[in-house]
Design a protein that fits this description.
Blueprint lengths: L2 H9 L6 H12 L5 H14 L3 H12 L15 E5 L7 H11 L4 E5 L9 H6 L10 H11 L1 E5 L6 H13 L5 H14 L4 E8 L8 H17 L3 E8 L7 E2 L1 H12 L5 H17 L6 H13 L2 H12 L18 E6 L4 E6 L1 H13 L13 E4 L6 E2 L4 E7 L5 H11 E4 L11 E4 L2
Parallel strand pairs: 1-4, 2-3, 4-5
Antiparallel strand pairs: 5-13, 6-9, 7-11, 8-10, 8-12, 9-11
Helix pairs in contact: 1-3, 2-4, 3-8, 4-9, 4-10, 5-11, 5-12, 5-14, 9-10, 12-13, 15-16
Bound molecules: uracil.
Length: 436
């Protein structure tokens, strides 16, 4: 078999067979097939697509490129969650300990932020002492003892994804449904959990800009789950505006802690409870997702999620005192208030622009490996539906480098649009696609 023949086959719109896909993936991971040939096949897939059989084969081959986590020794239902990425998406920080407090076991692997989107690992690393690079043995031991852990993606699991993603990132081939579906699902399958929730973000701040694209991606991921004997639900949730009020690493940790204390913003709290309800249902702890949501709400109100969060911090070397003394988190040297130039109801807040503003302040990376400033970010004082008068503060920039203010302010101002009529607010999923 030769890689060039497979590139030509896909270029001409033909479907690749299981063995052909496996030849490309394992050859790439072993270093036998060079980047330029894989880059070509990725571009051919981007334009020609893949049918369901090919996408399932690609996912299997990616899973088999490395180790798989065996969670069978855990004494309860195992769950996992993945978000396709957004702005202010700190859901895992609150959801993982909350689920654990509900009796579920969760060994969560998360990523770092890139471009306008943040990453859970960067957020957690803003907590003094918090260790994210656990070995697979340490991860399993912690989940057995505490019930949950959040660690960085290890190259031992699905090495194909790390290598493929790095190439996709620099060849304009990220936004491809079969490539996203196989990337997400291979990591979840290798992660070993029986019940999987994928939060498919849809809108201005997400990879999937339209509901149709988000549905297509979701159907494929659910089908991959069915073929690989996992319960999978995809919840398509809006990412037109940032989730919650804080965008920035330490700021988001602070907001997640407030949410676990019951004083977080309503859209974010609702979002966490919605996803928790779905995973409790998948795991058989509720007869419906709504019943699951009520269980999660009770546990949240009892302080169970906060207690688990502290246990997780302690187990991973993080300073637990940040939950009561937020000043122990990295901060910014000053705050820059942005007043409103308009009067009316906030209609929309463009998540992409807010994410970019946080990145410009130093809170995100333009390219992989760039250093980040954990203390900076954007705090939204108004969200869609809120009424605002002229000159009333709209947002606060948390700043360490004053030279960045102008660019960030322009982005934040440009992100807001207003309406004379009242605007409905409240988080609710746009669609649910599930095999359960
Ligand atoms: N998230 C992933 O894990 N992979 C993708 O390809 C896109 C989003």
């Amino acid at each position: 078999m030769r890689a060039v023949d497979l590139i030509i086959k896909k270029r001409d719109g033909k479907a690749l067979q299981d063995g052909e896909i496996d030849f490309l993936i394992q050859g790439f991971v072993r270093g036998e097939i060079p980047d330029y040939q894989i880059a070509s096949i990725l571009m051919a897939i981007f334009f020609r697509g893949m049918n369901l059989e090919e996408t399932v084969s690609l996912t299997k081959s990616m899973v088999e490129s490395g180790k798989q986590l065996d969670l069978s020794s855990l004494p309860g239902p195992t769950v996992d969650k993945h978000s396709t990425g957004g702005v202010g998406d700190k859901v895992s920080l609150a959801l993982v300990p909350l689920l654990s407090a509900c009796g579920l076991f969760i060994a969560k692997m998360s990523g770092r932020g890139l471009g306008h989107t943040g990453g859970t690992i960067d957020k957690l690393e803003s907590i003094p002492g918090f260790k994210t690079d656990l070995s697979l043995e340490e991860l399993l031991a912690q989940v057995k003892e505490v019930g949950c852990a959040i660690v960085s993606q290890t190259p031992e699991l699905v090495p194909a994804d790390g290598k493929l993603y790095a190439l996709r990132d620099v060849t304009g081939t990220v936004e491809s449904i079969p490539l996203i579906a196989s990337s997400v699902m291979s990591k979840k399958i290798a992660g070993g959990a029986s019940n999987i929730l994928i939060d498919v973000k849809c809108g201005r701040g997400a990879f999937m800009k339209t509901l149709k694209e988000a549905r297509d991606l979701s159907r494929i991921m659910v089908e991959i789950g069915t073929r690989m004997k996992r319960k999978v639900t995809c919840l398509i949730t809006p990412m037109d505006e940032p989730l919650g009020k804080m965008v920035g690493n330490a700021l988001e940790v602070k907001e997640a802690v407030e949410t676990l204390k019951g004083t977080g913003p309503s859209d974010f709290t609702n979002s966490v409870l919605e996803l928790a309800g779905e995973l409790l249902f998948l795991s058989g702890k509720g007869n419906t997702p709504e019943e699951g949501k009520e269980i999660a709400r009770e546990v949240l109100n009892s302080g169970g999620g906060l207690f688990k969060f502290k246990q997780m911090l302690k187990a991973q070397g993080g300073d637990e005192r940040i939950t009561d003394e937020a000043w122990r988190l990295p901060g910014a040297s000053f705050r820059w208030v942005i007043p409103s130039k308009a009067k009316g109801f906030v209609k929309k807040i463009d998540a992409f622009k807010i994410g970019k503003a946080a990145m410009i302040l130093g809170g995100g990376r333009e390219k992989k490996g760039d250093p980040i400033d954990y203390g900076v970010g954007v705090e939204l004082l108004k969200k869609s539906g809120d009424f605002v008068t002229l000159e009333e503060p709209l947002a606060v920039l948390h700043v360490n480098n004053r030279e960045r203010i102008k660019e960030a302010q322009d982005l934040v101002e440009g992100a807001f649009s207003f309406s004379k009529e009242p605007v409905e607010k409240l988080f609710k999923p746009l669609a649910r696609i599930s095999n359960a």
